[in-house]
Design a protein that fits this description.
The structure holds two protein chains of two kinds.
Chain A (H helix, E strand, L loop, with lengths): L1 H33 L3 H11 L3 H18 L1 H10 L1 H20 L6 H31 L13 H4 L2 H25 L2 H32 L4 H5 L8 H15 L3 H23 L2 E3 L9 E2 L5 E2 L4 H28 L12
Parallel strand pairs in A: 2-3
Antiparallel strand pairs in A: 1-2
Chain B lengths: L2 H40 L2 H34 L2 H35 L6 H30 L4 E4 L2 E4 L2 H5 L2 H31 L4 H36 L1 H8 L5 E2 L3 E8 L2 E9 L2 H7 L5 E2 L13 H27 L8 H10 L1 H16 L4 E3 L3 E2 L9 H32 L6
Antiparallel strand pairs in B: 1-2, 3-6, 4-5, 7-8
Classes of the chains: A mainly alpha, B mainly alpha.
Amino acid sequence: MLETIWFLLWGVLWAVYFALDGFDLGMGMLKPFLARDEYEKRVIYNAAGPFWDGNEVWLISAGGVTFAAFPLAYAAMFSGLYTALMLLLFALIVRGVSFEFRSKVDSPGWKALWDGCQVAGSFLPALLLGVAFANIFQGLPLDQNQVMHGGLLDLLNPYGLAGGVLFVLLFLLHGALWLSIKAEGDLRERAASTAAKLWPVLAAVIVVFLAYTWFATKLFTNYMANPALFLILLVPVGGLVMIRVWLAARRFWAAWGASAVMIIGVTLFAVVGLFPAILPSSLNPAWSLTATDAGIKASSSPLTLAIMLGVALVFVPIVIGYQFWVYKTFSAPVTREDLEY
Amino acid sequence: MDAILLSRLQFAAATMFHFIFVPLTLGLSVLIAGMETAYVRTGKELYLRMAKFWGKLFLINFVLGVVTGITLEFQFGTNWSRYSAYVGDIFGSLLAIEATAAFFLESTFIGVWVFGWKKLSPKAHAIVAWLVAGAGNLSAVWILIANGFMQNPLGYVIRNGRAELNDFMAVVLNPFAWQQFAHTILGAFCVAGFFVLGISAWHLARKSHEEFFNASLRIGAGVALAASILVAVQGHFHGNEVARVQPVKLAAMESHWETRANAPMYLLQIPGENGNVLEALPVPSLLSILAYNDPNAVVKGLNDVPAADRPPVAITFWAFRAMVGIGTIMPLIALFAWVKRRDIGKYPWFLKLLPWAIPLPYLGLQAGWIVAEVGRQPWIVHGLMRTSDAVSPISGGQVGFTLAAIIVLYTLLGAAGFFLAGRAVKQGPDAAR
């Protein structure tokens, strides 16, 4: 029971991470296409400024919870995806630093350097996370000793890349919607029309990805065994539809919220399909790392899971509470006056 | 080269680089929160300018500390997966608690701190500053409890082929962890104190912004004096704990080879890996007193430890000497600064010296952590798991590549950070941004 709860919480943490950091990664990718001058660039930086650091901690927590609740899966996943994860790290490092360093020197070369870091540091995490998760969906070459075979190039298979494209598009749309909230005037119009253009592309990719998933993975097995679960798909699909509706109505907050719901729904769809495996083995299902006894049990002791559950029940609501306060405090569009920092 | 050596080098590089930035973050955040509080209470503009000037330096430092910290959490899985699988039940949960209870708070409110000057009242902004400072120090508690488990594992049983938690409070209340925490945090306040002291002195030597930097210098001198005395006193008790829990580390710190009572300490000593190359000028019983507060106490020698279970003696010995030497100089400098704080301008040579003292506590902390971590070898978890059994099943080539990348990337970022901090210092408190 504890294992199942933690499996769901593990999925929820990743989902919240994607829904929050997704928009600032998306804006980082969109910046060179949307910002026409220094002023607009700074608006985009400031639209992410108060939030990105707190958002990224959801990734640290998702990693930490994998470590704490499923140490064997953490060990196999992080060592098995070694090069991809290191690239992800380097990207997140230069992105984080670019936020702080860019504004400190008034020279075009210096700013261009950190702008470049920001773009690369936003695109690579989006792509690599998508590639990594798609590979997990279809199973990784795990042997009976929980050692993964193959390297970075094996991850770049067609389904893995499809996952990468899906994540990049999800985050691009999410970022465009956030910028529609936070920017004013021209920049807002460009952000909103970019979101409108991205929407059909994303919708098409989601349909293709779901169909591809049917053939490339076993994610639908749980769904076929228990068709009521298909109702979960209403969440991402509903989110997707409502983005379009609210975008047309220029209700940007609602559209962004729908996009967050869609991202969370996509993640939950996959997590429910994975259950009870965290890392399915493509070599032999019995070698999969699982939350329960269905393969190699990867979870922590009941005592650790119980203590961690206590910690999560106390602190996660508190975290959500103050992060909500931060979003509320900084909900207004970025104005010229704000750019003095 | 093999994955184990490269992974050790990589972890050493990543942690030592991370730990250039963390101590200043821990100490300076508290000083800044104090400055903001003083502003709220007195309404004096000076304190606000102080919070903003030191805050700018704080932020450059902070971001480098945060981004290099993320690497560390990931590295347990990427490079030390067998360690993660073996002790993840305990160690992983401590890292997860750190993220949930402390790091979230710090990272969320640092954004509010930076962008909230106009959106929040001075009082609310000061509260945010305290949240950032408190959360950063709370992070250190959990990280050092996790490190404390590696130094002195408690509260576990070996079950299902791994270490499983059976007493959470024993893990959290690990006395070794709390000694390390106290020692580290006091060292961090030395860093912050000498940082403020040195930079203030640099400006005062140039007679620029004298009111501002005289006030800052007093704060720096007070913090540096208190912290450098306390860290030395507390270091003695930390040493007692090391002697009790890790007698082999203590023997390596002193290059002490023969197990004996009334163990002397040599004023002149050069260690080798199989005995001392030179030992002269013994002070009778001093080692026994320092380790156990008892001149007759028996101190275990390295000869009674199988060679395979000994840490590298010379590194541990010299790092310990460096730490203690720095710990002796720091209180003297801080004391002079404190005593002369009101007419420090009369001592231009001292004002020119103080900026050169900024690296001292940094070096002391790095040396101290070398003692703690190298002195624990060959164990990754003392007495429980060997470092050689902990490494991931990955190729040396992969690790070599990422090690090189980390060194290049960190060096570039460090240089950029150093450049920006230097610029901000020179621009002084009234720069436009």
